[in-house]
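Support case: user asked for a sample of complex input and structure output to validate their parser. Sending the pair below.
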Amino acid sequence: MSLEIRRVSKSFGQHRVLDGLDLEVQPGEPLCLLGRNGAGKTTLLRILAGLLRPEAGSIWLDDQQIDYAESHARHDIGLVMHQPFLYEHLTGVENLRFYARLYQVPDENVAIERAMAQVGMQRFGGKPVRAYSRGMKQRLTIARALLHSPSILILDEPYTGLDLQGSQAFNQLMLEQKQQGRIILMTTHDISHALPISSRFAFLARGRIAEELSNRNLSLEYLESWLTEKLAKSNSGQQRVTA
Amino acid sequence: MKDWFHSVRTLVWKDLLQEWRSKDMLTAMFAFAILTLFIFNYAIELSPVNRAEIASGIIWVVIVFAGTLGLNRSFTAEQDQGCFDALVMAVPDVSAIYFGKMLTNWLVMLFVSLLILPIYSLLYNQSLFYAGFILVLVLGAWCYSAAGTLIAGMTVQTRMRDLLLPILLFPILMPVNMAVVKAAGGILAGAPLLDVQVWFVLLAAYGIIVTTVSILVFEYVIRE
């Protein structure tokens, strides 16, 4: 089962964000999407989640085009975005219970307990979300995304707000998901965190995947210098376009 | 269909629980309703002759204005935390979000109406607890919630949502306002049921049509 993005384009007004982008993500091979701010990473993730419609192109899963009008296509995606998707006046457990019921998760109590344990939030499940710190909200957001055991995980800046311990726990969780053969696509600006779990890095520039790098025992130094070079190129290209 | 109703039930449970905890909508609606009732109490002198005629208008104006505050809030919680995206992904059909919100708005409006009726009775020394009158309010609140939830879903994504909602909603509600005031006024004046029957039919038809159309178009309304 692989996720394939074929010639996807998207514009906002006159600004073309994605321009015939092609990309393939294999199960158990997490892909980390990199690029400067405004490169179109979040737009691509929102298209993959079915929250935005592309002007052209299509998304395929296992040689079958995904029809986002079908609920099971949307249900099979776990999504972490900039916003937490949590209700401030409900407790952590109540938030998860709400989503578990919408996704019709079997044995919701067991699933909620497991999800809270996976992100180290068992002790705080009874507290209202408005009393949580940013990091705690992010942990709960990750628990929410994993609650219904989706095949595809779309993670936009998942390390936001997480402390070192939280980031390590998240990576451990992603390694488990990787072993279970989930399709994982994430964006981050912090490659040091993403390095241990990502199998590939793809650099997005001018609406397309400009270059890919396979993670075969890459060192952080090499990855950083590669990314710095790509960002410099991308920025100069952007300045030329603007000029 | 079973999944659809399950989602609606879950959404209503979440909305009511959240409202019970925050009391955002209830407090604003109730405070506004009470203040408006007091203003009417000073502004309009009711005589035994015009009492029945005017009472229905006063009560409905108070409920409609208070209801607009509630409608404005009903989608804001989803929008503020980005939860709308999560809901769209989780429900089997996006129309379940509309129906769940519509039911919540309806229940909250009825609850506020239930609170203000005895206060009105105290201020104006006039009982409003007639089965027919309550039925008119139930039907009117349904029609209001059905149209209001759809418009609130449209305007929540705009910067001027607070202004746009009443501007777009009130013209659509003209038949409802007329039917509620006429039916309720007739009942309070002791008119025979046959005389006001047409207004009940109008309200029921309006509610069914607007709810059905909203369920069908809601997905297109909220997309991009």
